[in-house]
């Protein structure tokens, strides 16, 4: 139902959204739209790579005569010319459309087939419709996603952004969802036996360190690091960071971009930050559910790259240091529970996972550094976010986890990394 239907034209502008169009999209879901109104911009956070608009509806569901209130999110290409051009060039819209209309339905169908219980299923916004049109020229590409409005579904976004760290309750709920998502995609791939997700889903993002944007991110990111790392520091840290800055592209290509097909790979979200998750709560105010969204950067890769990035960027610093075992154990138990229930055999011990987390702390920190002017040190940050960033770097350095054996030159030479 959510794949492209030729009889449903794609709107090119908001004015093209009509009552007739909404009914074409929603009638297959047993929803009849009686009236609709625009409710405004639904963007949350910074760095918008799409346009989000909320639409309020009056509907009848399942042929009921009773009118109900409902709202949806329409996700379309960004209108700002430079962001639009960048988004189209990188394939972000195609990737997210593939996630909602191909990847997630295929993985969910596999979980249904294997009889996986609801408790071992990952959550994501429901997609009512998704379609694209290529156009005569690349810049004429058009797409739209019609998505569940999480706010209307009693979820709450993290309003404080980077200014407030996730506490233990929120971290546990978020980590469990990450593990469920990773495990479902891993089980799907292993069961079907293809060597790469690209074999079946060719529109996944494939990052390129030759992209000139990397130079901008590296320069501004390390400037932010030098501004934040004030006060007493471990001896040699600043010199070590200088070497990492010079070799960041090499490190990121080898550890975060290049896919090792002999290793355990999953579909990574690749953008697990404050503004891409919503939480729901019980009557006592405890967080009980999380839904990750914004799948534009999804790619194939190692699961610990996602988990390390999440814990280091978003959570209380102790959760990726002295209390790390608690969250790694939760992730591992959740992950292996899905593998067992989906009847897919995998040897992936907790010790192996811990070793991989240690290995992927380095590229995760470098990824955070590249986005530091937004995530840690920008106008939406405060001393909490800067301290979290500072402690992540110093802890990794003191643990010896900011080292990298270069793949260039002599095999025994770490070239100062």
Automatic annotation (TrEMBL):
Which superkingdom?
Eukaryota
Any single Pfam family the record assigns to this protein: EcKL
Q: Signal peptide position in this chain?
A: none
**Which residues are in the CHK kinase-like domain?**
145-341
Q: Which InterPro entries match?
A: CHK_kinase-like, EcKL
What is the name of this protein?
Answer: CHK kinase-like domain-containing protein
What is the originating organism of this protein?
Answer: Allacma fusca
């Amino acid at each position: 139902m959510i794949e492209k239907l030729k009889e449903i034209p794609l709107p090119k502008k908001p004015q093209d959204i009509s009552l007739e169009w909404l009914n074409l999209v929603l009638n297959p879901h047993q929803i009849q739209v009686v009236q609709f109104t625009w409710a405004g911009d639904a963007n949350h956070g910074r760095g918008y790579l799409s346009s989000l608009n909320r639409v309020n509806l009056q509907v009848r569901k399942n042929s009921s005569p009773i009118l109900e209130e409902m709202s949806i999110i329409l996700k379309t290409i960004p209108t700002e010319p430079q962001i639009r051009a960048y988004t189209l060039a990188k394939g972000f819209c195609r990737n997210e459309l593939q996630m909602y209309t191909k990847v997630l339905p295929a993985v969910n169908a596999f979980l249904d087939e294997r009889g996986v219980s609801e408790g071992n299923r990952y959550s994501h916004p429901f997609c009512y419709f998704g379609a694209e049109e290529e156009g005569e020229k690349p810049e004429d590409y058009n797409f739209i996603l019609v998505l569940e409005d999480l706010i209307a579904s009693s979820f709450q976004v993290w309003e404080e952004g980077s200014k407030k760290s996730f506490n233990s309750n929120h971290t546990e709920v978020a980590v469990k969802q990450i593990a469920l998502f990773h495990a479902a995609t891993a089980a799907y791939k292993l069961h079907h036996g293809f060597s790469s997700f690209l074999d079946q889903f060719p529109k996944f993002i494939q990052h390129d360190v030759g992209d000139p944007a990397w130079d901008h991110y590296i320069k501004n990111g390390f400037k932010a690091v030098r501004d934040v790392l004030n006060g007493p520091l471990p001896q040699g840290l600043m010199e070590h960071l200088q070497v990492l800055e010079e070799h960041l592209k090499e490190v990121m290509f080898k550890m975060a971009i290049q896919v090792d097909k002999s290793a355990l790979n999953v579909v990574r979200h690749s953008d697990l930050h404050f503004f891409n998750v919503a939480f729901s709560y019980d009557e006592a105010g405890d967080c009980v559910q999380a839904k990750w969204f914004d799948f534009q950067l999804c790619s194939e890769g190692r699961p610990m790259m996602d988990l390390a990035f999440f814990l280091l960027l978003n959570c209380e610093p102790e959760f990726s240091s002295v209390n790390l075992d608690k969250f790694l154990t939760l992730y591992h138990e959740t992950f292996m529970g899905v593998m067992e229930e989906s009847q897919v055999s995998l040897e992936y011990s907790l010790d192996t996972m811990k070793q991989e987390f240690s290995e992927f702390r380095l590229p995760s920190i470098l990824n955070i550094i590249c986005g530091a002017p937004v995530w840690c040190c920008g106008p939406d940050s405060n001393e909490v976010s800067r301290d979290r960033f500072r402690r992540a770097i110093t802890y990794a350095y003191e643990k010896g986890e900011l080292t990298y054996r270069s793949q260039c030159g002599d095999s025994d030479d770490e070239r100062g990394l």
